[in-house]
Amino acid sequence: MDVEWVTKFLLLHLFLHSCTLSTHRTASDSCTTHIILPGPEGEHGEKGDLGEPGKTGKQGPAGSKGLIGEPGQKGEIGQRGKIGPIGAKGDKGYRGLPGSPGMKGQPVIAGIKETEERFYLIVKEGKNYNAALVHCKVRGGSLAMPKDEETNSLIAAYVNKTGLSRVFIGVNDLEKERQFMYTDSTPLQNYSHWRPGEPNNAFGGEDCVELVSDGGWNDVECHLTIYFVCEFLKKNS
Ligand code: GN1
Ligand code: CA
Ligand code: CA
Question: Has residue 94 been placed in a domain?
Answer without folding.
Answer: no
